[in-house]
Amino acid sequence: MKTLRTGLIAAVAALGIAVTLSLGAWQWGRAQQRLALQAAIEARAAQPPLQQDALLTAAGSPDLLHRPVVLRGQWLAQHTVYLDNRQMQGRPGFYVVTPLQLAVPASAPPVVLVQRGWVPRDFQDRTRLPPVETPAGEVTLTGRIAPAPARLYDFDGAPAGPIRQNLDLAVFRRETGLALVDGSVQQVGSPSEGLLRDWPAPASGAEKNYGYAFQWWAL
User: Fold this and answer.
1) What pLDDT score does 219 carry?
2) CB-based contacts of 77, cutoff 8 Å, min separation 6
3) What gap in Å lies between CA 74 and CA 198, rounded to an integer?
4) How far apart are CA 121 and CA 110, in angstroms?
5) Can you list the residues of the chain whose pLDDT is less than 70?
6) How many helices (H) and strands (E) does the chain have?
7) Quick one: residue 137, left, alpha or beta (phi over 0 = left, psi -120 to 50 = alpha)?
8) Which residues contact 17 (CB under 8 A, 6 or more apart)?
9) CB 85 within 8 A of CB 155
10) What is the pLDDT of residue 3?
11) Strands, E assignment, the chain
């Protein structure tokens, strides 16, 4: 009986070791995948800027994410949205998003949603819009192709005013009637027009997987 009990304990211990080793190896593999994705993002960001024609022919393609791009068009300032509860340099405020109607020969020129930058909020009056300059006429800007703005938890549903918690591209397309292409562009460059553009760099998150791997192996 004692020998059987010892054998069972040894079998359970061996199974536990195998499981923890396997889980640690899985987390290690996930870290390698994340690092490879991060390297691909950095490689795309280092490539020469695309012209807007490339964006139009492959709108929404994941292969274009984080590529630099040059856009030329006219701001549709009446459709500017201020995304609330967004931080830059550790300060809360708004991401300012304005559609840009591209200067292309078409009866209904396509429109790109541009994340123009960040502005601080007015804590005395939460409904007051901060001053942002939106040049009239044709403008040229440099940015990087990005997904639509990240979605935050929405406490009050989906308001349709200029200040919003989130911006759903499909809903905004129906609301405005604009020919919005998929995805968006984050404008880059020095502060201007009342906006900061110190966008957070995409992080791989591999360090978390490494930590989990070592925890499993330590067990």
Assistant:
1) 60
2) 98, 134
3) 23
4) 31
5) 1-2, 4, 7, 12-13, 16, 19, 21, 23-24, 26-28, 30-46, 58-60, 154-159, 202-219
6) 4, 8
7) left
8) none
9) no
10) 72
11) 50-51, 68-75, 81-88, 91-102, 111-120, 138-146, 163-164, 184-187
Q: What is the pLDDT of residue 157?
A: 56
Q: Count of CB atoms within 10 A of residue 109's CB?
A: 16
Strand-pairing partners, residue 82, are: 96, 163
Spell out where 42-153 has E strands. 50-51, 68-75, 81-88, 91-102, 111-120, 138-146
Cα–Cα separations (whole angstroms), residue 106 to 7, 77, 110, 193: 78, 21, 8, 29
Separation of alpha carbons 16 and 58, rounded Å? 49
Task: Measure the N-to-C terminal CA separation of the chain; round to a whole number of Å.
Answer: 29
**SS3 category, 139:** strand
pTM of the entire structure? 0.74
What token pair was written down for 62?
């994941």
Question: Burial of 30 by CB count in 10 Å (0-12 exposed, 13-18 middle, 19+ buried)?
Answer: middle
Paired tokens of 51: 């012209």
pLDDT digits (tens, 9 = 90+) for 106-130: 777 899 999 999 999 887 887 888 8
**At which residue do the structure tokens 């935050």 appear?**
152
